[in-house]
């Protein structure tokens, strides 16, 4: 099973449980139903966004620690500049 299939399966399973809780198929207390369940999707979205930004920031922060990838990227930038210079496009302004 691919990673996207696993992710979609988990998403649909959690969505089914959430909608069963929200619609009352799975009984919950009135406090949970009225005060927690309506805000759960937003809390999940904010948590996922914070995790994504944190992961991206950490990757940018530690990029120079991966010396071989850093040098490979610099070589690719130099190759792209020389390619576009041959085509008559000046990128060094």
Report on this model:
This protein is mainly alpha-helical and 93 residues long. Helices cover 75% and strands 0% of the residues. The longest helix has 22 residues, at 40-61. The N and C termini lie far apart (48 Å).
By helix and strand content, what is the structural category?
Answer: mainly alpha
Helix content: over 70%
Unreliable runs = none
Q: Give the H and E element order.
A: HHHH
How many individual β-strands?
0
Number of helices: 4
Assess the beta-strand content as a share of residues.
under 5%
> What is the oligomeric state here?
single chain
Distance between the termini: 48 Å
The major β-sheet equals: none
The whole-number mean of residue pLDDT values reads 90
For the CA atoms, what is the radius of gyration?
24 Å
- C-alpha geometry: elongated
Condensed summary:
It contains four helices and no strands. The chain has helices spanning 3-23, 30-36, 40-61, 67-86.
Helices and strands in order, then pairings?
Blueprint (H helix, E strand, L loop, with lengths): L2 H21 L6 H7 L3 H22 L5 H20 L7
What are the salient characteristics of this protein?
4 helices, 75% helix, 93 residues, DPM3, endoplasmic reticulum, Dolichol-phosphate mannosyltransferase subunit 3, membrane, mainly alpha
